[in-house]
Amino acid sequence: MAxxxxxxxxxxxxxxxxxxxxxxxxxxxxxxxxxxxxxxxDRLASVPLASVVTSxxxxxxxxxxxxxxxxxxxxxxxxxxxxxxxxxxxxxxxxLSELATEALWPVVQSQPSAVVFPGGEAMxxxxxxxVAAMRRHDAAIEAQHGPxxxxxxxxxxxxxxxxxxDAFGMHLDLFQRINVGPASISIVNYGASRPSxxxxxxxxxxxxxxxGGLKSADAPVGGGAGNTSNDxxxxxx
Length: 237
Hints:
The protein has a 6-stranded mixed sheet with strand order 3-2-4-1-5-6, with helices on both faces. Helix 6 packs across helix 7 (157-168). It is of the alpha/beta class and 237 residues long. The chain has 7 helices and 6 strands. The protein has one domain: Phosphoglycerate mutase-like (Rossmann fold, 3-Layer(aba) Sandwich). Helix 3 links the parallel strand 2 and strand 3 (78-79). GO terms for molecular function: phosphatase activity.
């Protein structure tokens, strides 16, 4: 299958002030977030991308534009509603420090599969629609560009964590063990038999080893010799 690079949007004004932005309008990258997005775009500049798919929210579209601007070939972003932020309902727009006192907070931390945000979305439904969107786009991109295609999905922290949990074969209740920082890069190859997670939450490192695409294969017994396309190996933090 094709290989997807998951990029979280850069830091926003809401992130900086500890507000749960959710799907609120007018939440944009602050200067730190712009610098983070530019750095991620620089890392991806050496990788010819088949497609850039993004959440419709402003912060993700801003981040995706940095990536598109550093590509040699002109691409138009694809807006995917199912990669949008979780609908936090009545939690949206409130300070995280205040939300931490809610009775639902420890459930979000330890049993997210049981969480339905008041007036909002179930976290299990969030994961289901995000993973379905990833699989759908991955199959379409491979069909159009071949199994060596590399594409980018720009989304949000909880969305990407839920996608990675699915790729790892982890129950959603364990997804809080995964960290996804602003503008971080994670990499998944949806192989014929199972997904392969190549990197998570990286903020630095050369990605030119992805330029030629990856071939899906069985997992090597003993771990194998790593990436052999050149001397640069993936970095996982």
